[in-house]
Write a structure and sequence with these properties.
This protein has about 400 residues and is mainly α. It is about 75% helix and about 0% strand. It contains 22 helices and no strands.
Length: about 400
């Protein structure tokens, strides 16, 4: 009996202290600070009232939240860990601890807290969504796909999940699956620009350029001003042979940060189709100036073709030589051989380039018809042996 009395006394004292802690705070004053987003001040106020150990779970949770919102992550972590220690099933604490580690870029640690949440609720789509983000940060591509598929299966209406999942599926050329994901999400929200963009990107990958344009127009009508939307609409018009429309769309982007080598390139190709070859070359020059890239040899090759069509054959050769400086390509030898052969009437030089093309021919990369033609021209242009009497 003697041992029971002190225990009862201790419990009574503890309960009394708990009640005192709950009543110490001026809740109106604290709420005013939180609503005014004065989180550091709110945390300091709670600590001024409770300088020692906080036994009230509600007060401890408020202190953790205020420290988190003020950016005091070490103190927030300390509070949320104590909450989780007292209640190992507290999902709010797990969620904030995951978020704290995510802010620190400790993605592996954040992942463990999200996984603990799943053990309590395996059908939480938002947690799978967060795990997909952690996997992405950890460069775990398989993990990203697995968690997005799971999140989408639980909540197919989530537009962010549907768009991110469709992007991965498009890259993997799983077009039917991507289409199904986007369609289900759009049934719930048909005017979601993000989802419309997903359908537009899928249509473009499938080379359905009319649909690409239709989705782009739909997104723009809803307020989409993204450069990619306008760019895909312009490219779609190019492939549908609406060259003037392609130029018109890209003209709107000129003089803005969105103008780049791609916009200039398709503008150049459109001008060529409209027989404005000099303008085509001007825009191809702009493509080069917009940024040196792996495509520079392609641009010089296109300029060579334009010059050939303008009957500026020496300039055409010079552009091929320039392309060669950036990246050797056997097709340049064939093109030089052909120009020297038929336009510059220089069989000796033509023969040299035809021979080089035949010698360096790669059946996986080079055109077989060009190869057959070059072999024949080598025979035709090679010096014939003198006939003995």
């Amino acid at each position: 009996m003697k041992k029971i009395v002190p225990l009862i006394l201790f419990l009574c004292l503890g309960y009394s202290a708990f009640c005192q802690q709950s009543s110490k705070l001026d809740n109106e004053q604290l709420l005013d600070m939180i609503q005014g987003q004065r989180y550091s001040e709110a945390a300091a106020y709670i600590r001024s009232v409770y300088p020692d150990i906080i036994t009230d779970a509600k007060v401890r949770s408020r202190l953790a939240y205020c420290n988190y919102m003020s950016g005091n992550l070490p103190e927030a972590e300390k509070s949320y860990l104590s909450i989780l220690f007292a209640d190992t099933t507290n999902r709010t604490a797990m969620n904030y601890l995951a978020a704290i580690n995510e802010k620190r870029r400790n993605y592996s640690v954040a992942k463990t807290f999200y996984e603990r949440m799943l053990r309590l609720d395996s059908m939480n789509a938002n947690v799978y969504k967060q795990l997909a983000e952690m996997a992405d940060n950890l460069m775990d591509t398989a993990g990203v796909l697995k968690n997005l598929v799971k999140a989408n299966s639980i909540n197919p209406r989530d537009p962010d999940v549907a768009y991110d999942l469709s992007n991965i599926l498009i890259k993997k050329k799983r077009y039917t699956f991507a289409d199904t994901v986007l369609k289900k999400a759009m049934e719930a929200d048909p005017q979601n620009i993000l989802l419309i963009n997903g359908r537009m990107e899928l249509a473009y990958k499938l080379k359905n350029f009319k649909q690409t344009i239709d989705y782009a127009k739909q997104a723009i009508a809803l307020g989409d001003i993204a450069a990619q939307t306008y760019s895909l609409m312009a490219i779609g018009n190019y492939f549908l042979k609406n060259y003037a429309e392609c130029i018109k769309i890209y003209k709107m982007m000129e003089g803005t940060p969105n103008a780049n080598e791609t916009t200039y390139y398709y503008t150049a190709l459109s001008y060529r189709e409209l027989d404005s070859l000099q303008k085509s070359n001007d825009y191809l020059t702009s493509s080069i100036a917009a940024g040196i890239s792996d495509n520079v040899p392609v641009y010089y090759h296109e300029m060579s073709l334009n010059s050939e069509m303008l009957k500026k054959f020496r300039a055409s050769i010079n552009f091929l030589n320039k392309a060669e400086e950036f990246q050797p390509n056997n097709i340049f030898n064939y093109s030089r051989g052909r120009i020297y052969d038929y336009y510059l009437k220089d069989p000796k030089t033509a023969l040299k380039y035809y021979k080089k093309f035949v010698k360096d021919y790669n059946k996986d990369k080079d055109d077989k018809d060009s190869y057959a033609y070059s072999v024949q021209r080598v025979k035709d242009l090679s010096p014939k042996p003198a006939v003995k009497n």
